[in-house]
Structures are given as structure tokens and as C-alpha cells.
Design brief:
With 166 residues, the protein is α+β, with helices and mostly antiparallel strands. It is 32% helix and 34% strand.
């Protein structure tokens, strides 16, 4: 697939249904990769989804008008002053096409625009493909790990990469 049909854009309130759909798909596809569950996420109201799409820093990947991925940028109260990447997901049929790199680039650009010099993420220790992808993009383990609050058998690894051009 060619990048010429790929579009990455920040969400607005009008994107709530697309965001909801891709988020629920991600939770069905790779539940061990996310802090929330499919069943809990189903409980969010349409107004909550509108708020998420409008007020949070979400990006959607679209290929030929269909949403094929998502990512968000944000902060982490446990690590003041840091910028984080959350909720990375690309639908299986679009993996390996450049969509994931474009989504990460969008959050990296957002973080740089906020003055960040590093970008952090959490990745499930059981999701080897995701860890390898992040390492390919320059993310390195920090050595920090923690158990996921909803299931202590799921361990998250913290990774970071420099956003400073060398």
C-alpha cells in the first residue's frame, strides 16, 4: 500500500464514533496491550466519547477514508513534565504499511511542539511485536516496569526516545 492514500489527523468532537470504533477494535484485538478493557470501555457514553475526541490529543490514521489506526499523546501524573504516547493501535490489515510510523511521528511532533525533548511510552511485556517496533523507532527501555492495575499478571515496560535531532 502506498502512503499517498494515508492521512493522519488530530481528532475533533465529530470524530467520536470513529474513535470509539477503532478503540473497541483495539481492545478486542490485543486486550493485553491496554490498561482498559473492552467491557469497561463499552460503558462510556456518546458524550464521553465526544469529549475524548475533542479535548484529548488523539490522532486517527485513515486509508482511503477508512480509519485504520489511532494513537494519543498526553502526560503522566506520576512523571511530571514528561510527554507520553498512549493507545497505539493499527488494524491488522494495515500493519506493515507505514501507518504506525506515521502515527508515532504525529505524537512525536505534538510533543516537540510542547517543548519535549523525550517521548515515553508503556508497552506490554507480552506484546513482543510492539516492543520490537518501538525499538526500531529508537525507543529504549528505561528499566522501569509495573503491573497493570486491572490484571497484575500483565507487566508494562517503560520505554523512551529522544526527540532532539542529532
Amino acid at each position: 500500500m502506498s502512503d499517498s492514500t494515508l492521512k493522519i489527523r488530530r481528532t475533533s468532537g465529530d470524530d467520536w464514533m470513529a474513535l470509539r470504533t477503532i478503540r473497541l477494535e483495539s481492545l478486542r484485538d490485543t486486550p493485553e496491550a491496554f490498561g482498559s478493557t473492552y467491557n469497561d470501555t463499552l460503558l462510556f457514553s456518546n458524550d464521553e466519547w465526544r469529549s475524548f475526541a475533542q479535548q484529548r490529543c488523539y490522532f486517527l490514521a485513515e486509508r482511503d477514508g477508512a480509519v485504520v489506526g489511532m494513537i494519543s499523546g498526553g502526560f503522566n501524573d506520576a512523571h511530571p513534565g514528561t510527554h507520553w504516547m498512549y493507545g497505539m493501535y493499527v488494524t491488522p490489515s494495515d500493519r506493515g504499511t507505514g501507518s504506525a510510523q506515521a502515527l508515532v511521528r504525529s505524537v512525536s511532533d505534538w510533543a516537540r511542539g510542547e517543548g519535549a525533548e523525550e517521548l515515553f511510552l508503556h508497552v506490554g511485556s507480552s506484546v513482543a511485536r510492539a516492543r520490537a517496533f518501538y525499538e526500531k523507532l529508537g525507543f529504549r527501555p528505561t528499566g522501569d516496569t509495573f503491573e497493570l492495575h486491572r490484571d497484575t499478571s500483565l507487566v508494562l515496560l517503560t520505554m523512551k526516545r529522544s526527540l532532539v535531532e542529532s
